[in-house]
Amino acid sequence: MENQNLNLNEERNNLFRFIWQSRKPLLIFTGIVFVVSVVVSLFITPLYLSSAVIFPAASSNVSFSEQRNVKAAAMDFGEEEQAEQLVQILQSARIKERVVKKYDLFNHYEIDKDDPNKNYKLNEEYNGHFTFTRTRYGSIQIDVLDKDPKLAAEMANDIVDLIDTVKNEMINERTKPAFEINKRKMMQLENERDSILNILDSLSNMGVSSLDVRSNLFQALVDSKSPAEKAEIQRKIDVNTRYGSQFDALEHRRNEMIIKIEEFRVSYEQAESDANANFTHKFIVEKAVVADRKEKPKRMIIVLVSVIGGFIFGVFFLLIKQRLQELKLNS
Question: Is the pTM of this model over 0.90?
Answer without folding.
Answer: no
